[in-house]
Amino acid sequence: MIFIFFSRTLFAQCDSAYTYYPALPLNVTILSGDTCLSDNDMVVLDSLISINDLTYGSPLELGTQTWFNGRLRFLVSGNYGNSSGVNDTIYSLPDNIGNWDNIASLYLEWNRLSELPGSFSHLSDLMTLYLNNNVLQDIGDSIGNLDNLYFLD
């Protein structure tokens, strides 16, 4: 009986599409919920790191992240030259970025992005998008499908 109590308090029980993280880096904020974080959101973060050959020990170390009920809601990954963004330049976004269907704010300024992947139009909850000071040739017509987007810089 005591073992069951301790095992439930030491290890959170997550839904099948979520993974429990016992410790989070200081750049991660949890607004609501516990540290059971979406596997899909983590895969996209990992893809972003991989495609740009960035050096992070964990996807949770990328930029400044805010999570709400286990889903990534805000990501600050601008290349500002300080600790609030990324420590290296982002050149491209992964095709699976459209899986961030709960993200509300995305800060990607001061990188070297030249295009947005087609799946970008699947970011249905995106409200604010910061893309200034990149090398974008075209943001594409599909950005018009982002019905909740009210701020684009």
Topology of this protein?
Layout: H1 2-10, E1 18-20, E2 28-32, E3 36-38, H2 39-51, E4 64-68, E5 71-76, E6 105-107, E7 128-130, E8 151-152
Parallel strand pairs: 2-4, 5-6, 6-7, 7-8
Antiparallel strand pairs: 1-3, 4-5
Tell me the domain tally: 1
Order of helices and strands: HEEEHEEEEE
In CATH terms, the superfamily is: Ribonuclease Inhibitor
The first-level CATH class name:
Alpha Beta
| Count, helices | 2
Strand content: 15-25%
The second-level CATH architecture is Alpha-Beta Horseshoe
CATH fold call: Leucine-rich repeat, LRR (right-handed beta-alpha superhelix)
Which of globular, elongated, flat, extended, rod-shaped describes the shape? globular
- The rounded distance between the terminal residues' Cα atoms is 56 Å
| Approximate helicity band | 10-25%
Instruction: Specify Rg, calculated over alpha carbons.
Output: 16 Å
Judged by helices, strands and strand pairing, the structural class is: alpha/beta
Organism: marine metagenome
Protein name: Leucine-rich repeat-containing N-terminal plant-type domain-containing protein
InterPro entries: Leu-rich_rpt (IPR001611), LRR_dom_sf (IPR032675)
Characteristic terms for this protein:
single chain, 153 residues, alpha/beta, Leucine-rich repeat, LRR (right-handed beta-alpha superhelix), six-stranded mixed sheet, two-stranded antiparallel ribbon, 2 helices, 8 strands, 20% strand, disordered N terminus
